[in-house]
Amino acid sequence: MPLSRPALLLRPDSRAVQDARTWVRAACEELGRTELLDCAELGVSELVSNALFHGAAPVTIRMRGTVDHPRVEIRDASPEPPLLPVPLALDDEDEVLLTVGRGLSIVANVSEAWGADLDASGKTVWFTPTVEIADGDGVEGVITGPPGAPPRPERLGPETVQVSILGVPLALYRGFEHHFRELRREVRLLSLAHAEDYPLAASLSALFGTLERQLLDGLGHGQLSGVIGTASNGERETADLHVRMPRSAAETVRRFIDMLDLIDEFCRQERLLVLARSPEQVTFQRWFLGEYLAQASGGRPTRWSEAQMTGPIR
């Protein structure tokens, strides 16, 4: 079943490790994966300790992935790759910290797969707990997504189209950007860690990369202008988005719309530890992406307010 337990914000003291162990134990029990408890708690002890010593606040723990391969993630605000933790002076009440100082080799020995995903605002160190502690060096970690310049959009040639997306509700737009980033990261990590179990993840990850290159300006870096409404606090509620895109990107957008529906079906079948989109999210995203398709084919823009009144989104 999709995991309903929210992420936990950890306090910056020695009790954070105990809190994280309690949280991950409850998450495993909620999924019916109690056989993972020992390895999950050991891995969490190391990664939370590492984040507290070498990372930056805030530090959070959450679980993603699938029921068969639940992935524990520790997030902190430092973009530096994970380092080995240092030994701590312990007292009788902090026996939970006894694993600190043995380094990430412990994580490697309690994981099916593990690694770090870096971005400009921090890093997520993750692992998929295994049933039994491995002998030897364990599995090798994978570091992905080093911070740096975003992928450059494809050079626009004569076959370009001006796309005007009118009356964009900015709250839904920001939610779409967040959803896009989360899905992109999810399928990338599944394709890296469990490619044999999820062959579709590699195809989806490649599609995300293509879409990001072709529509970089439209999906997060376009120019917002022409404010339509203003909230009571002075912030924008809606705006117009004007983007130039290669006409050939329309087919990528069409595939992406189908992919979002497919991922929702995976969620409803409880094959991913995330929730399917709400009806409002589905309606907005189909309208937003549908504007690329319609205008690439010569159609005229349809404002969001008009699209809501005309029934099903094309």
TrEMBL record:
Residue ranges of every copy of the Histidine kinase/HSP90-like ATPase domain listed in the record: 13-128
GO molecular function, one term: protein serine/threonine kinase activity
Keywords: Kinase, Serine/threonine-protein kinase, Transferase
InterPro entries: Anti-sigma-factor_SerPK, HATPase_C_sf, HATPase_dom
PANTHER family membership: ANTI-SIGMA-F FACTOR RSBW (PTHR35526:SF3), ANTI-SIGMA-F FACTOR RSBW-RELATED (PTHR35526)
Protein name: Anti-sigma regulatory factor (Ser/Thr protein kinase)
